[in-house]
Specification:
The complex is a heterodimer of chains A (486) and B (494). With 486 residues, chain A is mostly helical. Chain A is 76% helix and 1% strand. Chain A is built from 20 helices and two strands. In chain A, a hairpin with a 4-residue loop joins β1 and β2. In chain A, α2 packs parallel to α4, α5 runs antiparallel to α6 and α10 runs antiparallel to α11. The longest helix of chain A is centred in the N-terminal third of the chain and has 32 residues. Chain A is globular. The two termini of chain A are 17 Å apart. Chain B has a domain of 225 residues. In chain B, α1 runs antiparallel to α2, α1 packs antiparallel against α4 and α13 packs antiparallel against α14. Chain B has 494 residues and is mainly alpha-helical. In chain B, a hairpin with a 4-residue loop joins β1 and β2. Classes of the chains: A mainly alpha (486), B mainly alpha (494). The interface between A and B is large, with 37 and 35 residues.
Chain lengths: 486, 494
């Protein structure tokens, strides 16, 4: 067995433990953030070193080490690092447990890295739970009623989703006798068409899997938890949830559905259509319910439901395209990367602003263009990117993901999606309007710390780069999409 | 060619915008000077290109082509031909003059000029792009500066008008995006040149060619605008600050007409031919309806805004009459309307600024108090109604002659005759407007109002000079436009 292929994960575990232990001995908690980021960087270094090699598997084919997994691992590590940067000031709100906070962020990142790599049903479940349980705790970290309610809600609904997922897995296992994705695929392909049709349990299992994963990615109709949890959670964790947790969900969906249910073609057409319908409903519902929101975190919660809808347009394209065609998958990967940068940027700006205002109400952003011009500019750029307008990353991401969909006969869905972008412009621009047109509530400037500024600069630079010269990241995404171990 | 002229023309304004936005502590005076320099150089460069355009060679010139996004087969591909070069000059010309027109802006000048310059970059980019993705990127960039310019520096219901503009434009571009993507997967290419050369008929379309044509057309029709997609225009024009109205009417609307010729007609000649009667009908409705509504306006700016709908109807008529002369006329009309309406808006802005009144029922007799503005306004008005020796005459004459004699669209003569009626109504509303503003009894409350100052006289002169130059010697532009139009007419087989 090649344990060296597991070094990125192992190093992260070690650093998480170091953070917890260090927390016992030091008074300057800022150092913990530095150590956590160092851990993420070390892990990222090992991950990059593996890039481009051939696909391999470890632990009896339970974990795949392929470009696809590595792409996501890098994405999660980067996101976690930015989240920690954005948390440095925010954690001063917690009287205690700062060390645990950082350690939990690292552990959930570990869970997501495993999610991207798992190629076997049981380890999928374990990775998912490792991620989720860390996140349940993180959501409740503020310990005020809203945060606790959010945490409890997330935990209860998450547990239900996990149960559904397990039931789906059990059904799939029951009808194929396998838990390893590649072996499931072989078993399904060995079944005759009549055999599959006469076993509705298998189809039900697939549908339940979609439901279980749908909870993670906030797909309609499994999105009920989103607004409350997003509003109640500490803002850096909201950013983390909206970006990394969602990306992990998509990673696992891509791997499971592509590897296990990619063939026969009619089966993938079926789940492709399910995703197409979920996408259409998700985008429309997310955007329409975002319209009347007055709390910016809640608004971005609904917006993330809509964004999940756009992403599912890509999943639908994956379902409708031949297995050999990697374009659909690479469009989803690119969209996730650009969405991650965009949303992190937006939330970082929100953290900086709410540190001063102690409010997340959109109306309190009035005159922010005067009080904190650079913050307002950065937030504006990120919101423009969320609409999908140039020169931001969101534009290229939408163009790319919709191009994959049009290629596979989903023009109707793309038309729905682009019309949805028009609706979304209305509520995103409302925030922009308040910031630049509203009269400032007070003349006081809104300061931001060095860590926040760094996190914000990295995200905004990334948003611009991906919007203007996306070629490099698209190439990475393509390479990742082509290199599927199982 | 070693020097990338087109890139310089496109990106100088945005470079100026970045300087203005991010250098701390600039005074308003300095900001205006920077803006003036960074718009004047593109103007000079575009005139240089005009002089060095090789008329014998034709085709796209000053081409720049670099690989941009390999995954999408997209290129950074710029070039100008006889059709786009006049529009580039028009945009650069207006881009420079609007900085002068905005000289008195003192509300948040830093942001104002940054957005104004970004706007110019995006319009120039649209006219120069030969790659569909690049074209669409520039097309979309324009929305954000317009939103800010209208909603912060506008008047009246500015926020409503701004968001209405954004929603209409995004709706149009949403349709266009669907069209571009379909076109991309039909042909496998994003290059306008390649697609036009191989002809859409040689591919199997992912959806029907007619659908792609109309998806694109809707995007352009919102911008032009064409009845019934025009309702954003009066609001946006009326509530925008003067300089933005000038750019909007002068250059932005032309993106619609340009897109129709460059994409709809060039790539889909058969579909354009098939649906020409429908589009020509819409053109006639736009002309007559626009003119009739204009007659009823009592707000100075709104009146000019509505007149644009009517005048853009001539462009649509010229395009879908599909003959060499009518298309040339349409292209010339775009240029000419840009200058004339630009001047009209500038003068209306000046009247509003100096007199502080825009209601036609309350204005009157101003010719005595502000003679210079009155004369220039009248000249602009006469150009708008197509008086000979002005560019308006040359352009409209070409559109009508070209349409009437077009052999491609059946029954075009009837449409043309109907459209000519628009001229009569135009004469009516223009003369009536001039009469209500400048003639009649002198009103005492307007005594002592300032007339145009030196700077204002300077830009008025520039406008008038171009109007007269093109009016007296239209060949200076039509010779070049023809070079761009001929290959398109060749595709139409007529």
């Amino acid at each position: 067995m090649n344990l060296e292929l597991f070094i990125p994960e192992l190093s992260l575990v070690i650093f998480a433990i170091v953070v917890i232990l260090l927390d016992l001995f030091i008074q300057r908690k800022g150092l913990l953030a530095v150590v956590s980021i160092a851990g993420l960087v070390v892990s990222a270094g090992f991950t990059i070193a593996m890039w481009g090699g051939s696909s391999q598997a470890i632990f009896n084919n339970m974990l795949a080490v392929d470009n696809f997994a590595l792409f996501f691992k890098l994405l999660f590590l980067g996101v976690a690092a930015l989240v920690i940067l954005a948390s440095v000031d925010y954690v001063s709100k917690f009287a205690r447990f700062q060390g645990e906070y950082y350690a939990l962020v690292l552990l959930s990142a570990l869970g997501m890295m495993l999610m991207a790599a798992t190629a076997e049903l049981i380890s999928i479940y374990v990775a998912l739970e490792l991620t989720s349980i860390s996140l349940y705790v993180l959501v409740g970290f503020l310990k005020d009623p809203k945060s606790s309610e959010a945490s409890l809600k997330y935990l209860l609904l998450g547990a239900v989703a996990s149960a559904i997922l397990l039931y789906g897995m059990a059904l799939v296992f029951g009808f194929t006798g396998k838990t390893q994705l590649g072996e499931i695929a072989q078993a399904i392909q060995a079944m005759s068409l009549a055999g599959i049709l006469s076993s509705p349990g298998l189809i039900l299992g697939i549908v339940l899997l979609i439901a279980g994963f749908g909870f993670k990615i906030a797909a309609v109709p499994f999105q009920m938890w989103v607004p409350d949890v997003y509003e109640g959670a500490p803002t850096p964790i909201t950013a983390y949830l909206s970006v990394a947790s969602k990306a992990a969900g998509f990673a696992i969906i891509l791997r499971v559905f592509y590897s296990a249910f990619g063939l026969p073609q009619w089966l993938s057409l079926d789940w492709g259509l399910i995703f197409a319908v979920l996408a259409a409903i998700g985008m429309t519902l997310g955007n329409i319910t975002a319209l009347p929101q007055t709390n910016i975190k809640r608004m971005l919660g609904y917006s993330s439901i809509a964004q999940a809808g756009y992403l599912m347009v890509g999943l639908a394209a994956v379902g409708l395209s031949p297995v050999t065609d990697a374009v659909g998958r690479s469009t989803v990967l690119f969209f996730l990367a650009s969405y991650a940068l965009t949303n992190l940027g937006a939330f970082t700006a929100i953290i900086a602003i709410s540190n001063k205002l102690n409010s997340d109400l959109i109306e309190d952003y009035s005159g922010m263009g005067k009080r904190a011009p650079l913050l307002a500019l950065a937030l504006t750029l990120c919101l423009i990117s969320l609409i999908g307008m140039p020169p931001a990353a969101g534009f290229m991401a939408k163009f790319y993901i919709f191009s994959g969909a049009v290629q596979h006969g989903l023009l109707w869905l793309v038309v729905i999606a682009v019309l949805n972008s028009v609706i979304s412009a209305y509520y995103y621009l409302r925030v922009v309007k308040v910031m630049w047109l509203g009269a400032p509530v007070s003349e006081e400037r809104v300061p931001s710390s060095g860590a926040l500024r760094l996190a914000l600069s990295i995200s905004c630079l990334g948003v611009l780069l991906l919007g203007v010269i996306p070629g490099f990241v698209m190439k990475l995404a393509e390479a990742a999409a082509k290199m599927f171990g199982f | 060619m070693s020097f990338n002229y087109l890139s310089a023309i496109i990106f100088l304004p945005v470079a100026g915008a970045i300087l203005i936005a991010f250098i701390p502590g600039l005074s308003a005076r300095l900001i205006k000077r920077i803006a003036a320099i960074f718009t004047f150089v593109p103007l000079a460069l575009s005139i240089f290109l005009f002089c060095n355009f090789d008329k014998a060679a034709g085709g796209f010139q000053f081409v720049e082509k670099v690989e941009w996004i390999t995954a999408l087969n997209a290129h950074y591909h710029l070039g100008v031909d006889g059709l786009s070069l006049p529009l580039v000059i028009l945009t650069a010309f207006l881009g420079f003059l609007v900085v002068l027109i905005s000289w008195k802006i003192n509300l948040r000048p830093r942001e104002y000029f940054a957005w104004l310059l970004l706007l110019e970059t995006s319009i120039l980019g649209v006219f120069c792009s030969l790659d569909l993705l690049l074209f669409f990127l520039f097309w979309e960039i324009e929305v954000i500066p317009m939103y800010f310019l209208i909603s912060i520096w506008g008047t009246g219901r500015k926020e409503y008008s701004a968001i209405k503009y954004v929603v209409y434009t995004l709706f149009g571009s949403a349709m266009m995006l669907a069209g571009i993507l379909s076109l991309y997967f039909t042909t496998g290419s994003l290059s306008m040149v390649d697609i036009a050369q191989s002809g859409i008929a040689s591919f199997t379309a992912v959806i029907s060619v007619v659908a792609i044509f109309f998806l694109l057309l809707i995007g352009f029709a919102v911008k032009l605008p064409v009845f019934p997609l025009h309702t954003w225009l009066p609001d946006a024009h009326t509530d925008a600050p003067t300089a933005v109205s000038v750019v909007l009417a002068g250059a932005l609307l032309k993106m619609g007409g340009y897109g129709m010729i460059r994409l709809c007609v060039t790539i889909f000649p058969q579909v354009a031919h098939q649906y020409a009667p429908l589009l020509v009908t819409l053109a006639v409705i736009s002309i007559l309806y626009g003119a009739a509504v204009t007659l009823r306006q009592t707000d100075l700016k709104r009146l000019i805004a509505y007149s644009s709908i009517s005048h853009m109807g001539y462009v649509l008529l010229g395009i879908f009459a599909l003959s060499q002369v009518s298309l040339t006329g349409a292209a010339l009309q775009m240029f000419s309307h840009g200058i004339i309406t630009g001047l009209l808006f500038a003068m209306a802005g000046l009247v509003m600024h100096n007199v502080e009144e825009r209601d036609l029922r309350k204005l009157g007799g101003l010719a005595r108090q502000i003679p210079i503005i009155a004369v220039i306004f009248s000249v602009a008005g006469l150009a708008a109604l197509g008086l000979p020796t002005t560019s308006g005459f040359a352009a409209e004459f070409l559109v009508f002659v070209g349409s009437f004699s077009s052999t491609i669209v059946p029954g075009i003569q009837v449409y043309t005759i109907l459209a000519v009626l628009g001229i009569v109504i135009t004469a009516g509303y223009i003369l009536w407007m001039l009469q209500r503003v400048f003639y009649g009894p002198v009103l005492e409350q307007y005594n002592g109002i300032k007339d145009a100052d030196t700077l204002e006289k300077a830009y008025m002169f520039a406008f008038i000079a171009v109007i007269m130059l093109v009016g007296i010697y239209p060949a200076i532009l039509t010779d070049i436009i023809k070079i761009g139009i001929s290959p398109i007419v060749g595709l139409l087989g007529g």
